[in-house]
Design goal:
The structure is a single chain. By secondary structure, the chain is mainly alpha-helical. The chain contains 25 helices and six strands. Strands 1, 2, 3, 4, 5 and 6 form a six-stranded mixed sheet that branches. A hairpin with a 2-residue loop joins strand 1 (196-203) and strand 2. The longest helix is centred in the last third of the chain and has 48 residues, at 513-560.
Amino acid sequence: LAHICPPSNPDPIPGRRTFPCLRARVQEFLKRGKELRAQGARHHANGEFAAALRCFEQCGTLLPAGHPDAASVACDRATCHLRLGAPDKALKDANMAMRLAPTSARAAQLRARAHESKGHLHQALDDVVALRKAHPEMEEARVYEERLRKGVEAMNGAKAGKKHEAAARAMGMPLPGAKGKAVAQQQQERARPPPTLKIRCVLEDDVRMLEVPAQGTFEDVKKAIRAKFPGAGTLAIKYEAENGELVTVAGLADLRVAIQTAAMSAMREAAAAQAEAKRLAKENPDAPPPKMPQLGLPYVSLHLVRVVRGGAIAPVGDAIIAAEDGEECEFDDYIFDFADLFRQQLGIDPDGHVSIHSEGLERCQEALETVATSEEAQPLFDEAAGKFQEVAALAMFNWGNVHMCCARKRAEGGKAKAAKDKKGADGGADASAQDDPLAALSPEEALAMDAKLMEAEAKYAESLRIKADFYEALVAWGQQRFERAKLFQAQEGAAAAAIARPAPERGFSAGERAAAVDELYVSAIEKYTAALEMLPGVAERQAAAQKISAEKAAAAAVRAGTATPEAAAATASEPVQDLVKEVTPQVLVMWGNVLYEQSAILVRKGDKSDDWQDLLVDAVKKFKEAGCGVGDINGALSRHASKDAASVVAARGVTIEEEKKDDAAQDQKDSAAVTASPAVAAASG
């Protein structure tokens, strides 16, 4: 999703802003992610941990930032890594799950297990102690804590070089060498290919062998048969029962019966072979023993029968393999002879339809030319031009979003570097200790990030040139200015390189770093203001277009007979989407982020004036107007660069507590703020 639209969680307050044009695609991604997670769970239950890990990794890439299932999927990946003997990767995913869901008991347990697998018993014990404090009712955590304490005490009392061995004995675990061998053996067993089922398919005189996964479904068998017999038409699957009768296979249960029948037959053959071998051994003791057949999954013999519609053989539903679309049908020669005789007797010209078809196309073209030049057709052409204009603007907008994603990847590299620099004794990283991730970027990375931000700005400007009322481009452009200002504040080299360029190329007019940062912040607010002013007109035009489209659809349904006039009228009169209420909270959150960041910069500079206080109060007002939660705003104030942020806001008479309102008004407010930031997390300080 991050490569399609700009992230909807502007720093420092993550939100869930999505544009209407992408909602259907988001739902598709979420549905596919749910399917992948279910498939990974099945692989995990079958002991196929590598396949399960691939499913969970793909599921994680499809979930948007801040999704409630992201922490659970990270825990799933950590579990697979532990099963595969990769504690480092398991620890990384467990840390991610803890950042996404700090109170998750499962994430805490997995991180403790990862530390234990790496031999970091002290860190594992710290995680379990914290888990016990948060969830004192967990009996499993209590037992785990007692076992870890025994290991830590034994480790502390052992001599150097014997600590891990002593801890393993105290905890009742295999010694490190034995454990390594066991893990290697488990990995070797998992690396073996999964068992397959061999099927012998007989279609008339054609016999072919195929293989399907032993844990597969009946649909897998049908697809494999269709691939082996392309162009065979509609087929029915049958197996030969013990009495010699052909029984139709209508589902997985019937297929299991066929497998059991084949297994019983194979066992009888093996028993007969063993009896024959014993008889031969008694008759000729000096002869070498015959090679006995190996028992395993036997091959299953299935008979395929062509389905004759309307005849004696006509199974339906899952019992048949439908013919492929476009599959050719064979006709006997007598059909063609009869058709030729019929044509001669009636005097039909077989090529006459070609000239009729051409004449019809000519008449249709003449009618289209007449209609296209009429006055009634001009509004349709204008509407089509507007659609093409919107598509072109959207293409440039998404192109700019791609550059923004590339720039944010550079920022993520700074976060990773800052986390590595802040690495503690426990092998983890304290995310809260990262003062400014952008400051950790190298000069080359900072310049590359600024170049991508400039490319995004050019695409947003082109989008607005194509369609002047494309408010999405204005909002994204404001966010671009905001992120560039933060980069300049953290990276003096990037700011100096930008100032050295000519004014038309650098995107601002200021000649000093501090002035350039202020100018970019002011420009971001101007973009947000322009977008809010543009919204009512855009919303009115979109509502009118949606109403006309609904009326046309209702009229078409009445003409087609699929709806009554009353039902069609009710459908056409349904309320349309209120764009202003949906987008305004999102823009207000971004606006508040800019003010919040400006306030934090002044505090870090040691500014003694009241300017930072005015900016902070204005930011809180924007957050409140956007409908952000009380706990979210208080959390942002607690992470402000000034420890007196909350008291300053209270002294200015701004109350953060929500006022009691009637239910209807509160529901309307909640619905308007649903796409705004539900969690104010100020990460700029």
